[in-house]
Amino acid sequence: WISKFGDKKAIFRSISSPTSPSLVESLLGKKCRVIRGFVCENSEELVSAFEELGLHDGETAVIRPVDSVDGRASKIVRSIEEVRLYDFADGTVVLRENVQLDKAPDGLPITTSVAYMKGEIFGQ
């Protein structure tokens, strides 16, 4: 997967070209909603991404390293100042909207994913 499509950078747009669709958006079109977010390399880009998402102080966003798989390095930010102070200790990150997941009748969150197997992305 990583050698062919890369890491989370394939899912999210780059803040350096915010109107260009991500690889996943290009492949899936309108079939699946992709969480809005942007790949950021530095503090200036992170601030731009917060603003591009239309967020204001008090509204939450998530900063997550592009190579994170378990969410432990994720950080919820609630202000432009928190965004400015982020230290990029884990390298390139995604700043994305913080979404409330739908829940199944048993209370467990319902999430969507893109499945990849033997060189193909399912759902095409």
From TrEMBL:
It comes from Guillardia theta. This is Uncharacterized protein. It comes from the Eukaryota. SUPFAM superfamilies: Glutathione synthetase ATP-binding domain-like.
